[in-house]
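Handout, section B. The chain below has 248 residues.
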Amino acid sequence: MSTEGLDIAALARLAGVTSRTLRHYDAIGLLSPAWTGRDGRRHYGDAELLRLQHILVLRELNVPLDTIASIVDTDDPALVASLMHEHYVALLERRDRLATLAETVERTITRIEKGLPMTADHMFEGFDHSRYEPEARERWGDDAVDGSNAAWAALGAAGQGAHLAEHEAIASALARLAAADADPASPEVQALVARHHAWVSLFWTPDRDAYLGLGAMYVEDPRFRATYDKHGDGTAELLREAIAVFTG
């Protein structure tokens, strides 16, 4: 690497993240630039690149940012090993769930090719809709969760598949805009937020505060953040910021 290092745009391209993400990491003290030019552009040297590599490895493991900070800032090998062991166990659990999903998709492909019927239960095996239910009941109450479950069941297999596909389409489109450093208030982003709000409202229509809280949860809860950031780093953050604009 050049002794002059990399500016923020070059590092973003090299690491496959957005400039927005690098600025956010700087703002929270996770990754500061080696220096900032007179034009305000951030520059990064070898030490910063190594630190970013470590951060991105942990992000792939869906480790929360505050935990990442404690790992990359510590000089205690025992603490690092303990934390990484927890992430290793979580990865094994995710591997098993993905294996189940892969088998479900494989069966679906086979049945489609052969023109065979498939039950709804088999079509959605591996999509765990119940594991967060106790938490949801505590947060939003039994009526909201029971209504959501009833609405999901009423969709039927085709409707459920279309609903999942719509979410993936929204998230993928947001990821492309996040990679382009799009303004959360831009018409393109706001159109996607409107679709997202409609997607959520199929089961539960959130008021302004509830929708803002949902956007915050997408970023703050690593489980939900991973749902969006698997499409591209910064997707969950863009959605949160865009929801804030959408709710006015």
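Note. The chain has a mean pLDDT of 80. Compare this with the example in section A.
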